[in-house]
Design brief:
73 residues; mainly alpha
Length: 73
């Protein structure tokens, strides 16, 4: 279904919305969390934040790929 407000279908809007949130987290937040864990010498927490960062980067890549397919189909 196409939105009159945005001119985007729901799927495209959803992808763009999550891409924005994931990008904000990756570029504005996660590195601060990693630095804080390093400063506090919390090795287990540091590894968790790094794992989350890697997972979110993969998710971002998946969404980017599907968005490209949406626009080229």
């Amino acid at each position: 279904m196409m939105s009159e407000k945005t001119g985007l279908d729901n799927s495209t809007y959803n992808i763009l919305s999550v891409l924005g949130k994931e990008a904000d987290f990756l570029y504005d937040t996660i590195d601060k969390y990693i630095q804080d864990a390093e400063s506090a010498n919390k090795i287990e927490l540091l590894e968790i934040w790094r794992t989350i960062k890697n997972d979110r980067q993969k998710h971002l890549g998946l969404l980017k790929d599907v968005l490209e397919k949406e626009f080229h189909s």
